Amino acid sequence: MKKISVWVLAIAAVIVSVSFDARAQSGQAASAASGNGAGASAPVSGRKSDRALRRQIYAALGKHKEIDAGNISVRAKGGAVTLTGTVTDNAQINSVADIAKGVPGVTSVTNKLTVSKPLGGM
What we know:
The chain is an alpha+beta fold and about 120 residues long. It contains 2 helices and 3 strands. Pfam families: BON.
């Protein structure tokens, strides 16, 4: 009877240790998977930084009273900025691009701004 109890305890101990080892390995796999999941959350933080960059550009444009930023659209992705919309005169096209380039975090500016024509004029 003592031999059977020793064997049962020994087998139970082996099963317990194997199950703990299996849990540890699955936990490592889960943490590795969550490491890949961190890459999935990177676009979220990327979107946040893109939005923050857009806000900074709009704020910089707002400091220049001669520029009406109401018709200017700013898109940002990873530091690359695209400006679209209209301005009132040709000189403002380059001025808006220069202002955007001066904002920290901007790596490039694609300027698609055009000059708006007055409704009644030619």
